Amino acid sequence: MADSLNFQLEEELEFSSADDEFDMNSSSVWKILIADDDEGVHSVTELVFNSFSFDNRPIQFINTYSGKETLEVLQKEEDIAVILLDVVMETDDAGLRVVEQIRKELKNNMVRIILRTGQPGQAPEEQVLIDYDINDYKNKSELTSRKLKSSVITSLRSYISILKINELNTTLERKVAERTAELAASLEIIEKDEEAGKKIQFKLLPEDNMEIGGITFSREIFPSLYLSGDFVDYFRINERFIGFYIADVSGHGASSAFITVYLKSMISGFIGSYNHNNVELILKPDELLNVINQTLIKEDLGKYLTIFYGLIDLEKNELHYSTGGQFPFPVLLDRKSKDFIRFKGPPVGLLRIARYKKEILKLPRDFSLIFMSDGILELLKDKTLKEQESQLLKILTYESTVTSLIENIGIDSTRFLPDDITILNVRRTASE
């Protein structure tokens, strides 16, 4: 069933890639499939992207006009990056059926799917986003060329991230196979390969001692193996808000490290959605954790994580945060006092019914927020939880740095660690 697409053609925008080093060698073009039974939709869409390129690659369009034809093309073309998929074609729900078959029968979780409809009443947006594994949902009557380009760019960035995750996964799986065949003779080589994997993962970390809006972020991660299940990130969202998080994935090693890459990809996608489409999920800690929780459960990756996601409101001098089981509790210190920020929240990716709350905390003029992953408790394992908390408060001071904490707690990176250990210090010294 045909429905019209009336773009408000706007002045051409110049977009540049945020990932200049992307060179997956998969193709010299981005393949985008237009699946719509209206020939006019194909023509207008191609007109919008005339002379468009992203990351120095042009777009190659593939055209289909029914759900059946779309699936036939997808079985042959495995490197399609994005599908612009109409909901209503040969049937009222043809597009939705195609989504199901792509994800479940073709097992294609890489292609990014943007649903488009001229009849939003046929498939309400909120329910479709919950029930189907899609990446965006657009009403054709409200879709401008700017919005379409932004949605496609966000989808291409997500596609690149997935390619990188798959590349890392493939590389590590290949190295594990080689280790099985030549274990005794290749121990030194394997250690070098794992060290390379560590370097790849650590390149995703933000710069240490980074100042954003007068706030200094310092961090250190000590993996128990070569690859870590702990991760931190911090970033400027806009002039008012700074975002940051500390996460600890269940388990250790490569499988947990994959989830940290996946988590960063998801949150980077939320930032892109805010920048390009003004979707404010990145500014809503509770809703953000709800989405990550449902995504991890839906993907069934066999992993869950604990996480503290925070926003620093520079305008109101407040900390907005939600937590998903992060422990030990972070410590807030100023020049006169110190105490744990105690809160409740279930781990993320473990319970489908889990719900998360947003808390708001007024920040002192000068403050230091110190976060530690639960690996720190392994170094204090002979003490009760109450004694461990008391010992941590004695060690921590307003002047504490990540380096001094490492020395005072006794972390020795040259020795075996039973668990990954991460320290994040968020600090402002406004009076200096």
From TrEMBL:
4-aspartylphosphate: residues carrying this PTM: D86
TM region positions: none
Residues of the Response regulatory domain: 31-155
UniProt-listed GO biological process terms: phosphorelay signal transduction system
UniProt keyword list: Hydrolase, Phosphoprotein
InterPro entries: Bact_Sigma-Reg, CheY-like_superfamily, PPM-type-like_dom_sf, PPM-type_phosphatase-like_dom, Sig_transdc_resp-reg_receiver
Coiled coil regions, renumbered to chain: none
Record GO terms (molecular function): phosphatase activity
Pfam families linked to this entry: Response_reg, SpoIIE
Alphabetized SMART domains for the sequence: PP2C_SIG (SM00331)
PROSITE patterns, A to Z: RESPONSE_REGULATORY
The name this protein goes by in its record: Serine phosphatase RsbU (Regulator of sigma subunit)
Organism for this UniProt entry: Spirochaeta isovalerica
